[in-house]
Structure formats: structure tokens, C-alpha cells
Specification:
Mean pLDDT: 79
Distance between the termini: 31 Å
Helix content: 10-25%
Shape: globular
Order of helices and strands: EEEEEHHHEEEHEHEE
Structural class: alpha+beta
């Protein structure tokens, strides 16, 4: 019987896959495979859990997973690199005017145009991941590092399909990024995020993930023809994830 007092870190994604649990008291290389017939009543309860999996053959990039407990069944949030096969899923939010309203790109009406953007701006990005539910993309999150004497800083950006707004998914995705990004990008000390002052939902995402509100940058940039005030948030490498 698994020690129910152990701090459990993971309940893994798909119903087609075996379920694994990883305890913080065990080395990360040790996994415990559970019999699918084991009554769930024997499992410790948890609100959400997270871990990082590395493909043993090192042929695939690592995938970061989080199990987010919401009303009803838990929702498994994961991050992974995009592939061109994600075009149809990407188009769901890229073609939504509600989503693009706060993005610097305009709404996509052509999958051919979006495919070209994915080839150049997504696959070629230094650090961009698909936000997935049960392995299927529902959004994107990126960290864009600066160069030269500003290389200690990077800018966070994220986008989520509107049907998944207000469910805590973006917050979980941001937390997953923060757990690895300072290792992924060597020399990084600070992650910044600029949010339109009217985009209250996105500000809440950052605050719930542990970002600090640095201040308001008045009349900071022009967004789709309008001069906008922007709120600056930051998370440094010594901050704690909420």
C-alpha cells in the first residue's frame, strides 16, 4: 500500500495511459505504477500536482504536466513544443476575434497564412510551447529572451482559446513555465509580462502565479491604433511560485 502521507506530485494524463504517481520523498527516477483496479478511495487527495517527464531515449523534448483539480473531474494541463500537425487546433484561437483583441497579431482567416506563421514564428521561436489539455493544444505560451546586456531578462506571453477562459488553465500553464524556465534559459534572472491595463483577467493570471506588479507604464505603446497604458509584472529567479 502506498504511504498516503507522502506528498504526491503527479497523476498523469490520458485515460489510455497507465497512471503513475511520483513521491517527493523518492528520487525522480523512481516511479510507482498503479493497478487500474486499485480503488481510488485508497489514493491521497490533492488539489493539483505537477512534475516533469524526460523521454528516456532523449529523442523527444521533455513534457511538463500538471493535474488541475476543478469542479468535476481534474483537468490535465501540459506543455510541449508545437508541430505543424497542430495547425487545426491553433486555428481555433487564432481565428477568434475575442482572443486576438489583446494580441499584437490580427485575427487569422486563412489556414495557409497561419501555417506560414507557424513555420517562421512558432517553430523558430527560442522558447514557445503548446498549452495542452489531455495532450491537445488549447493555447500557447512563450518566453522571449533578450540579448546582450539585457539577457538576464525575458518576456512572457500567452494566449488561450476563449472557451477555456476562467478555468485556471492559463495560471497553471504560467506556473509550469516558472518551474523550468530559469534552468532552460541559462543566465535568466527575471521574467517580465506586459498586460493592457484593461485586461484584468490576464493580470489575475499573473498575480495568481506569483508575479509582482511593478507598476503602470502610462501611454506606453500603440496597440491596434490606440495608445495604451500597460501594467508591468515580473517574476525573478528567487521568487516563490504561489
Amino acid at each position: 500500500m502506498l504511504d498516503t502521507k507522502s506528498h504526491i506530485l503527479l497523476a498523469i494524463i490520458s485515460s489510455q495511459n497507465p497512471t503513475f504517481l511520483l513521491s517527493s520523498d523518492l528520487p525522480s527516477s523512481l516511479s510507482v505504477k498503479l493497478d487500474s483496479k486499485w480503488p481510488r478511495a485508497h489514493l491521497p487527495s490533492f488539489k493539483y500536482s505537477t512534475t516533469i517527464f524526460h523521454n528516456q531515449s532523449n529523442k523527444l523534448p521533455c513534457t511538463t504536466l500538471s493535474s488541475l483539480q476543478m469542479d468535476g473531474p481534474s483537468v490535465k494541463v501540459s506543455l510541449r513544443p508545437f508541430t505543424l500537425s497542430d495547425l487545426d487546433d491553433f486555428f481555433v484561437w487564432a481565428s477568434d476575434d475575442r482572443v486576438s483583441a489583446h494580441c499584437r497579431w490580427d485575427t487569422y482567416t486563412s489556414k495557409d497564412d497561419l501555417l506560414n506563421y507557424m513555420k517562421s514564428g512558432v517553430l523558430g521561436h527560442p522558447w514557445m510551447r503548446a498549452i495542452c489539455l489531455h495532450g491537445r493544444p488549447v493555447g500557447a505560451i512563450s518566453v522571449t529572451p533578450n540579448t546582450g546586456e539585457d539577457r538576464c531578462r525575458a518576456e512572457l506571453g500567452y494566449v488561450l482559446a476563449s472557451e477555456h477562459w476562467g478555468k485556471g488553465i492559463a495560471t497553471e500553464a504560467v506556473k509550469l513555465v516558472l518551474r523550468t524556465i530559469f534552468e532552460d534559459l541559462k543566465g535568466l534572472e527575471r521574467v517580465e509580462a506586459l498586460v493592457d491595463i484593461e485586461n484584468v483577467g490576464s493580470q489575475r493570471v499573473l498575480q495568481k502565479a506569483g508575479f509582482v506588479k511593478d507598476g503602470v507604464l502610462r501611454r506606453y505603446l500603440i496597440h491596434k491604433g490606440r495608445v495604451r497604458d500597460m501594467v508591468l509584472f515580473s517574476f525573478i529567479c528567487t521568487d516563490e511560485i504561489v
